[in-house]
Amino acid sequence: METISKEKKAADLPLVTEAEAGRRHLLDEQTMMRMGLMPCKPPVARALVKEGEEILYFDPDKVREAPQGYRYPRQKPQPPKREAPTEPYRLSPRRAATLGYFPRDVLLHMYYEPTEGPVAFYIKKSGERVELFDRATCRRLPLPCTRCGENTRYRAKLCHACYTKELAARRAAGDRRRAAARGMARERVLFFDLEMTGVYDHDEVLSVTVVNGHGETLLDTLTRPQRKKRWRATEKIHGITPDMVKDAPTMAEIAPQLTALFGEADCIVSFGSSTDFFHLARLYRSRAERAALKSKLVDCGTEFAHYIHEHEIELQHLSLSDAMAHFSLPWDGTAHTSAADTNACRLVFEALFPHYYEGEPL
Ligand SMILES: [Zn+2]
């Protein structure tokens, strides 16, 4: 069943000509093998070549360096290698290839350089003897850029020139996007932060703050966990003790207030919203409500990471504190409390998107 569905999938891929695949810089398995790459996503297109053979093409942005000995999906399984005889022995070229033995020029073309003597040979029709070397004992040569194919790789599988060009384009697009006037209404843009008993899904919320684009606090409360009794590790970070929350409302009790606020918002920003979303999603019953919430969430942390990478700023960590320090923004209150973190998130977001509230609504 498995193979049938796989074949069916391959047949659904858009057909391209080899020339078009070349124009789109798509990579086929042969090329990837030569460049030492492996796909991390399924193929995106296929071309039919002679005798009903098919070439699968992969997105060049969805590939990574293949580990030594990586076997490509369509490569035939290799038979177990026999003990290498001391003297090179005669093989057919086809048999040699299945054993991973290749002539020197073929290996160089695949960016391998023989380091040991030949293990086998074959005789061409012309009578010429071709020495074969074991790829497994070869040295890996510097790999070429996946874009231009000429220079040696520098970063992200690209050479320095191609990488610099790509980064400049990405930065220009990012800067344009961040600088755009969005016409968002300040009262409909919300910022929030949660303090938690820990970092796992089973952990619970200890405090919630919601602030709008005017900087007005709409909600700022401690919450009482329903299962957790103590949280010594995170207590040292946010300073919320079990005693402090013993009379606080539970998340379930503030749910109506919180969902009403979120319901009125166009955009809900937090620093690291992927984990927050998991806890907020529990406030909603239906999948549609959760999807509606998710569509409004903006992760300020991800936006900060884009900005830092696009501008090639050397930052080891991309925490909210790092973001505040990077933009030289002042803390109001103690970091790691939900109130201070929510305001910090707002300042960082507004530094990243300086014209968010200006202009006509998009
Ligand atoms: Zn290049």
List its salient traits:
362 residues, alpha+beta, four-stranded mixed beta sheet, 18% strand, binds zinc ion
Describe the structure.
The protein has 362 residues and is an alpha+beta fold. It has four domains: 14-65; 89-140; 148-179; 186-352, Nucleotidyltransferase, domain 5 (2-Layer Sandwich), CATH 3.30.420.10. Helix content is 36%, strand content 18%. It contains 13 helices and 16 strands. Strands 14-13-12-15-16 form a five-stranded mixed β-sheet, with helices on both faces. It has a four-stranded mixed β-sheet with strand order 6-9-10-7. Strand 13 and strand 14 (217-222) form a beta hairpin. Helix 11 (300-310) crosses helix 13 (338-352) and helix 12 (320-326) packs across helix 13. The longest helix has 20 residues, at 160-179. Bound molecules: zinc ion (ZN). Zinc ion binds at residues 145, 147-148, 151, 158-159, 161-162.
Summarize the structure.
This protein is an alpha+beta fold and 362 residues long. It is built from 13 helices and 16 strands. 36% of the residues lie in helices and 18% in strands.
Low-confidence stretches: 1-6
| Termini gap | 48 Å
Label the overall shape: elongated
Strand content: 15-25%
CATH architecture of the largest domain: 2-Layer Sandwich
Helicity level, as a percent range? 25-40%
DSSP, total strands: 16
Radius of gyration: 29 Å
Q: Structural class, from secondary structure content?
A: alpha+beta
CATH topology of the largest domain: Nucleotidyltransferase, domain 5
What integer is the average pLDDT?
87
N to C succession of SSEs: HHEHEEEEEHEHEEEEHEEEHHEHHEHHH
